[in-house]
């Protein structure tokens, strides 16, 4: 957050000027949220939690609250860091206050700012309370939802838990830093990222190792923002490293530094230069079904559609991240009751209806997803104007990993219990897949593993959402192997997902998909034929830096051995809009003799006509968007594709 000081100065100056607030720039959430969720919910829509800088602002905002019946609502203000010093989400002191008599009075237990609409007076409140949030918006902005960022810096998470020191090293080895919280907005985004990746406890760059209760970052600089849970820190000399905690809304605690927690890293100074081709976009306003179609079409996009359970999980994950309660999906039976088709009149490949739905008959002909029902669908009247539009680029695929053969060393379990939808996403965000059983041999491996680690009830990847009795995996492929217990499956339309138990010897039951059980994920096997793990980076690096970047993750810069592999990489690079990127090859040692990183001569080359042409000045291989190669200066900057196989921890 190199720009923190500059942003603070700018907003301090602007905060004393007359605000742009009017009722037409305001938006109220449709669900009650915590203060942290309020900040992120507004930010996710290209908005900010409303900031009141004058009595005039306060009158306008409270008038809007009266109009929308928001009895109590959050304002942008907190005194997390210094009791009694009220600042906004970016750390700027509030230029105006309107506290009720005898308020604020909550001390360290009530650190966030709320308003009673009955009189417009302010109060301090516990930050994890749930009330309405009012956001101020720019109607021209869209939320670009595939990136989760801290002020433009991309976040990554480790694949296993580690100590505080190991987490710092993990981030440093990737040219990144352990996540550091500069203000409440950062904290909200990091907490949202933790929610998205189901990361219960995660390290933050904060410690008091040298001087007890003097909290500093890795550079020894005193923290400009603190967000400890009431009563914390209280651990004395035994607990010297800071962490965030998912279930208490991102408030901090401190732990012994040798505890094992998730590492979250960010890259300083990296900005998002444009929308990712896999971006999902949400409308600011609630629309009818036809208005949602037009909204997406006007952006050159299509209404979001789930062709399988994995894609439905991704869409639900997106709605979960930005607190969209109800949203349209591309599906209707307007022409023929019970025949569900997309906007092109093509039959839906996947149907993820909630048990008992669809039930609306001729009056409810359009499909919606519902946040509180784990993303399962309902049918609604198409004229309802109470749902958000979700759009994505035509041709977008939201892939879930293909089948991975596994042994006991390639299995990992979650430490929490999740719905089927959440379990899919939990494994996916860690580069793995929810366990699939395709043979008696893999069933026996899984049964032995779950019995050993005492994972009582756990999910198996399989569902019959679309057609009762036709069981498919998350990618929609029909399951050829099944291992049902006696008298199973027996749940009908109310039980569309599969679980097993460590005492069932691998036998299956059908169960409601919204129940919560352990997730068992498959990662790269430790022996035999290992699955290739690809990593695509848009960060621009020199050739040498690209090689080191890949090596830091236990991977290698991509080595292309034949035309088929070149076509495969080309397809992936195009899908990700990667542009030019480095590949493994150089003639540094001998002009014209192209070798790989191990100095073995290349057996396959795919130079474009007239190349290589650079002489001694251009000695490194670069692939063009066409898939043809050129020689390039090794100190020029390009993206990189890394590949290899990585053995990961056997338990989260």
TrEMBL record:
SMART domains: CLECT. One of its GO terms (cellular component) is extracellular space. PANTHER family: C-TYPE LECTIN DOMAIN FAMILY 11 MEMBER A, TETRANECTIN-RELATED. GO terms for molecular function: carbohydrate binding; growth factor activity. This is Lectin 2a. Residues 21-136, 150-266, 285-388, 406-522, 534-643 form the C-type lectin domain. Keywords: Disulfide bond, Lectin, Secreted, Signal. Residues 1-19 form the signal peptide. Its main location: secreted. Pfam families: Lectin_C (PF00059). InterPro entries: C-type_lectin-like, C-type_lectin-like/link_sf, C-type_lectin_CS, CLec_Tetranectin-domain, CTDL_fold, Selectin_CTLD. Gene3D superfamilies: Mannose-Binding Protein A, subunit A. The lineage of its organism: Eukaryota, Metazoa, Spiralia, Lophotrochozoa, Platyhelminthes. It comes from Girardia tigrina (Planarian). It is found in: Secreted. The keyword Iron-sulfur does not apply.
């Amino acid at each position: 957050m190199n720009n923190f000081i500059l942003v603070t100065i700018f907003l301090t100056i602007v905060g004393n000027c007359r605000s742009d607030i009017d009722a037409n720039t305001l938006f109220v959430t449709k669900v009650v949220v915590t203060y942290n969720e309020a900040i992120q919910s507004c930010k996710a829509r290209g908005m900010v939690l409303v900031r009141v800088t004058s009595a005039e602002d306060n009158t306008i905002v409270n008038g809007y609250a009266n109009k929308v019946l928001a009895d109590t609502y959050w304002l942008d203000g907190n005194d997390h860091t210094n009791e009694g010093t009220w600042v906004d989400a970016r750390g700027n002191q509030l230029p105006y206050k309107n506290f009720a008599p005898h308020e604020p009075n909550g001390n360290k237990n009530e650190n966030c700012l709320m308003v009673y609409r009955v009189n417009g007076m302010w109060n301090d409140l516990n930050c994890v309370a749930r009330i309405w949030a009012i956001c101020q918006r720019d109607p021209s902005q869209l939320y670009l939802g595939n990136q989760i960022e801290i002020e433009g810096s991309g976040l990554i998470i480790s694949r296993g838990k580690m100590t505080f020191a190991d987490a710092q090293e993990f981030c440093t080895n990737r040219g990144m830093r352990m996540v550091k919280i500069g203000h409440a907005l950062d904290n909200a985004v990091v907490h949202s990222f933790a929610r998205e990746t189901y990361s219960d406890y995660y390290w933050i760059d904060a410690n008091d190792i040298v001087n007890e209760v003097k909290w500093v970052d890795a550079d020894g600089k005193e923290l400009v923002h603190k967000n400890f849970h009431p009563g914390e820190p209280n651990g004395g000399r035994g607990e010297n490293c800071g962490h965030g905690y998912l279930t208490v809304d991102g408030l901090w605690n401190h732990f012994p530094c040798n505890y094992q927690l998730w590492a979250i890293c960010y890259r300083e100074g990296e900005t998002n230069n444009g929308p990712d081709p896999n971006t999902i976009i949400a409308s600011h306003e609630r629309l009818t079904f036809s208005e949602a179609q037009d909204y997406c079409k006007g952006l050159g996009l299509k209404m979001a559609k789930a062709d399988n359970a994995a894609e439905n999980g991704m869409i639900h994950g997106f709605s979960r991240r930005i607190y969209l309660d109800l949203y349209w999906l591309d599906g209707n039976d307007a022409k023929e009751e019970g025949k569900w088709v997309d906007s092109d009149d093509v039959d839906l490949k996947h149907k993820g209806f909630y048990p008992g739905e669809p039930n609306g008959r001729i009056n409810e002909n359009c499909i919606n997803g519902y946040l509180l029902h784990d993303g399962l669908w309902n049918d609604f009247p198409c004229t309802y104007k109470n749902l958000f539009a979700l759009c994505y680029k035509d041709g977008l695929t939201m892939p879930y990993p293909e089948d991975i053969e596994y042994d006991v060393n390639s299995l990992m379990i979650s430490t929490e219990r999740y719905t089927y939808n959440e379990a899919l996403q939990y494994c996916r965000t860690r580069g793995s897949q929810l366990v699939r059983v395709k043979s008696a041999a893999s069933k026996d491996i899984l049964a032995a593993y779950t019995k050993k680690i005492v994972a009582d009830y756990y999910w198996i990847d399989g569902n019959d959402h679309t057609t009762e009795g036709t069981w498919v995996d998350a990618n929609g492929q029909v399951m050829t192997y099944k291992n049902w217990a006696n008298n199973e499956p027996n749940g009908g339309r109310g039980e569309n997902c599969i679980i097993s138990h460590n005492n069932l010897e691998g036998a299956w039951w059908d169960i409601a998909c919204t129940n919560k059980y352990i997730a068992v994920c498959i990662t790269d096997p430790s022996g035999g034929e290992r699955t290739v793990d690809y990593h695509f980076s848009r960060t621009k690096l020199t050739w040498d830096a690209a090689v080191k970047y890949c090596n830091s993750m236990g991977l290698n810069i991509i080595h292309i051995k034949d035309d088929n592999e070149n076509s495969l990489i080309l397809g992936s690079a195009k899908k990700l809009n990667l542009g030019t990127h480095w590949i493994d090859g150089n003639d540094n040692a001998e002009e014209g003799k192209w070798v790989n990183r191990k100095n073995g001569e290349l057996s396959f080359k795919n130079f474009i006509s007239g190349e290589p042409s650079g002489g001694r000045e251009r000695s490194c291989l670069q692939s063009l968007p066409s898939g043809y190669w050129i020689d390039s200066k090794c100190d020029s900057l390009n993206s990189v594709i890394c590949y290899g196989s990585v053995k990961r921890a056997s338990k989260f």
